[in-house]
Amino acid sequence: MRIISGDYRGRALKAVPGSATRPTTDKIKEAVFNLIGPYFDGGRSLDLYAGSGGLSIEGVSRGIEEAVLVDRQFAAIKTIQSNVAVTKESEKFTVIKSSADQAIQRLNGQQAFDLFYFDPPYAKQTIQADVEKLSAANLIADNAILMAETDQEAQLPDQIGGFELWKQREYGITVITIYRFKG
């Protein structure tokens, strides 16, 4: 795995050891950023199931100002911290060891996020419930983008909370669904 584009382009990233985490491949990561816009002019991102942190690091490499990465596994947190160190700009990243629910509670009242990465374990599709909690905590910025990586069995709806389906692509068993926040 590597950082594909932007300020950190070409730097290698580690995967979380073991089989508990499924890393987003470079091919899928590149497809995601081709769909949501290749580069950003600031903003904040949130990844509630960060795994190795690759999506958030790629986003910051491409112009996101600040990324919050959440995972509940100790091995994932260690991997994220190691991968963030590769950027040599750790001040742009906040790493939280927590469940998604606890992280949303902890972030309640903070500045809203412009970009959300949702790549929960395929067997535990909690995207709709997580979006409702984010909305209740006022953590969704106007015109925010939500990227969901699922398998083909997930069957996400055209609307989730105030988000409306914008784009969707299939890559083998992986489905990338992009939503825009309409409020």
TrEMBL record:
* The UniProt record lists the keyword RNA-binding: no
Signal peptide start and end residues: none
Has UniProt tagged this entry with the keyword Transferase? yes
**InterPro entries documented for this protein:** RNA_MeTrfase_RsmD (IPR004398), SAM-dependent_MTases_sf (IPR029063)
State the EC number(s): 2.1.1.171
Q: GO molecular function of the protein, one example?
A: 16S rRNA (guanine(966)-N(2))-methyltransferase activity
Q: Which SUPFAM superfamilies match?
A: S-adenosyl-L-methionine-dependent methyltransferases
Going by the UniProt record, its keywords in alphabetical order are: Methyltransferase, Transferase
Name the source's superkingdom.
Bacteria
Specify the protein name: 16S rRNA (Guanine(966)-N(2))-methyltransferase RsmD
Q: What is the lineage of its organism?
A: Bacteria, Bacillati, Bacillota, Bacilli, Lactobacillales
Recorded name of the encoding gene:
rsmD
